[in-house]
Design goal:
alpha/beta; Metallo-beta-lactamase, Chain A; seven-stranded mixed sheet; 45% helix
Length: 332
């Protein structure tokens, strides 16, 4: 038994050293369990979202693959170095560009997504790409000016985060080729390897019209993609808040020990509660404002609640309120 424990300890230490020693300007790698890794976006890098790597045994799976093919190439390299196997599966959790534009780097792997996500990538990504090409220089110029005029370190950091996103998009223009998923998941799929089992499933709409999550039942690790943001204001514009809350409540039932969000640091199940609180509070603010007859500009000027005031990307808060307000008005 001592020999087994010693061997296991040495193996884990080796993995920790490998993960820590891999250098990428785009991300850092955290070991969550032997063979399970969180890949966390770096400030000033061009990953933009978080990713995951799972060693299934003889096969490797990558969960989400970044906005930049350059960052995705680093992701592929570290995944294969850490597991000793090629990447056989790539998961697109939803259609947003920061989670799917690295697909082209993994040609030859099965790229899994729901039918709704496939359709949204196919229809929306070309439109978004054309829009980005037409506007990206102006957007970069605008936030470079905002960065120059920032009043404090926090404003500077927020401007830098937005600039990272726009620069990642611009960097990829010459390299990017839309690569669609080739394996469609209806609602769930179990992938069984010699080392572990993972479950991919969707409860339908939430952050987008269809969101896939990855669950490792043995390790109690949940990769939520953008259903959970930690320490960062989420984007609500493509989601359904009531469905999102229901989805999060169902994830809570799994009792995960570790949460890997789409954006932000690795967390715990408490961060699901915090995400639900954000969604509820945003809805309450808008509903209360409508009851009081407030105008749109008054709602947009609502101060961020104290609990969420230190979250990054604070400009999303007023945009989120306006999106909820417009959705409410369409119903009346």
């Amino acid at each position: 038994m001592r020999l087994v424990m010693l061997t296991l300890t040495l193996a884990i230490n080796t993995i920790l050293v490998q993960a820590a020693s891999f250098e990428s300007r785009h991300f850092t790698v955290e070991v969550l369990a032997p063979g399970v890794f969180a890949v966390i976006n770096k400030d000033a890098g061009h990953a933009i979202c978080n990713s995951g790597i799972v060693d299934l045994g003889e096969e490797t799976l990558v969960f989400d693959c970044f906005i930049s093919p350059d960052a995705a190439r680093d992701l592929k390299q570290v995944a294969e170095e850490l597991t000793g196997n090629p990447v056989n599966y790539v998961v697109n959790s939803h259609y947003h560009n920061d989670h799917i534009r690295g697909n082209q780097v993994f040609v030859g792997a099965r790229i899994l997504a729901t039918k709704a996500t496939f359709d949204l990538i196919q229809t929306k990504d070309p439109e978004e790409l054309e829009s980005e090409k037409a506007s990206i220089d102006k957007r970069i110029e605008l936030f470079e000016e905002k960065l120059k005029n920032a009043l404090n370190d926090r404003q500077k950091q927020e401007c830098s985060m937005v600039l990272d996103y726009f620069r990642a998009i611009k960097e990829s223009f010459g390299d990017y080729q839309m690569t669609l998923p080739d394996s469609i998941i209806s609602d769930s799929i179990c992938i069984e390897g010699s080392e572990r089992r993972i479950v991919l499933f969707s409860k339908g709409p939430g952050h987008t019209p269809d969101d896939l999550v990855m669950w490792l039942p043995k390790e109690k690790i949940l990769f939520t993609a953008d259903l959970v943001f930690i320490g960062i204001h989420p984007w609500l514009g493509d989601g359904s808040v009531p469905d999102w809350i229901n989805y999060l409540n169902s994830l809570h039932d799994l009792k995960p020990a570790v949460i890997v969000p789409g954006h932000g640091p690795v967390g715990t199940s408490r961060d699901i509660d915090t995400m639900i609180a954000y969604l509820n509070k945003s809805s309450e603010i808008v509903d209360d404002a409508i009851k009081k007859g407030k105008k749109a500009e008054e709602i947009a000027a609502t101060p961020i609640p104290e609990f969420f005031r230190q979250w990054w990307l604070s400009h999303f808060f007023s945009q989120n309120l306006m999106g909820l307000y417009e959705a409410r008005m369409l119903k009346h």
